[in-house]
Amino acid sequence: MARRYDPERRTRIIDAALTVIAADGIAGLSHRTVAAEADVPLGSTTYHFASLDELLVAALRRCNENFVQALRSSGLFAEEGDAGRGEGDAGQGAEGAGLAEELTRLLDRWFAGERGAIELEYELYLAALRRPALRPVAAEWATEAVALLSRRTDPETARALVALMDGVCLQVLLTGGTFDAAYTRVMLERIVAGGDA
């Protein structure tokens, strides 16, 4: 029997894993449930991903890419060599307030979308607590977000902004609350201004 050429199979398997995790949590993930969801033979899942940790790494990396792409396409960042930090210190004055406003707007748009997608991303992100194979991928998200924000402010402030945004997202998700844009903007402004706002 000839092997069917299917260059998108690996991608479909990752998408199916995300669907299974969204519906049943990580506890519901198995090669068998993913194969059924992807409509591929069981052997295809183990061919592309020898272990569930490998599959979880790929799924988390996909989620990271989605959020970092949202950051990149938000209009917050000039290309290398363009405006960047350019005209003075981005952590001061109107520029800093603009950064806080744009980050708040980005989070607001994120929470206005499908909440299940955010919960899925954080479930995978927090799975790194118990699954060491996921830790480097979870760290990649923070590292890349800091690198992007460092185009508009210094690296220390960028790390603090990422930590605050992460904390706000976790609190909203864990408490079942709503995103408070006004509060978030004020806290982001304080960080950008060095705590003096």
Question: What is the approximate shape?
Answer: elongated
Which percent band covers the strand fraction?
under 5%
Average pLDDT: 85
**What is the makeup of the main sheet?**
none
Structural class, judged by helices and strands? mainly alpha
Uncertain parts:
80-92
From the N-terminal CA to the C-terminal CA, the straight-line distance is 69 Å
Helix content: 55-70%
Discrete helix count: 9
Describe the 3D structure.
The protein has 9 helices and no strands. With 197 residues, it is an all-alpha fold. α5 (93-112) packs antiparallel against α9. The longest helix has 21 residues, at 52-72. Residues 80-92 have low confidence and may be disordered.
Q: What are the main properties of this structure?
A:
197 residues; 0% strand; mainly alpha; 9 helices; elongated; 68% helix
How would you sum up this structure in a few lines?
The chain has nine helices and no strands. Helix 1 crosses helix 4, helix 2 packs across helix 3 and helix 4 crosses helix 6.
Topology:
Layout: H1 9-24, H2 31-38, H3 42-48, H4 52-72, H5 93-112, H6 115-127, H7 135-149, H8 155-175, H9 181-192
Helix pairs in contact: 1-2, 1-4, 2-3, 4-6, 4-7, 5-9, 7-8, 8-9
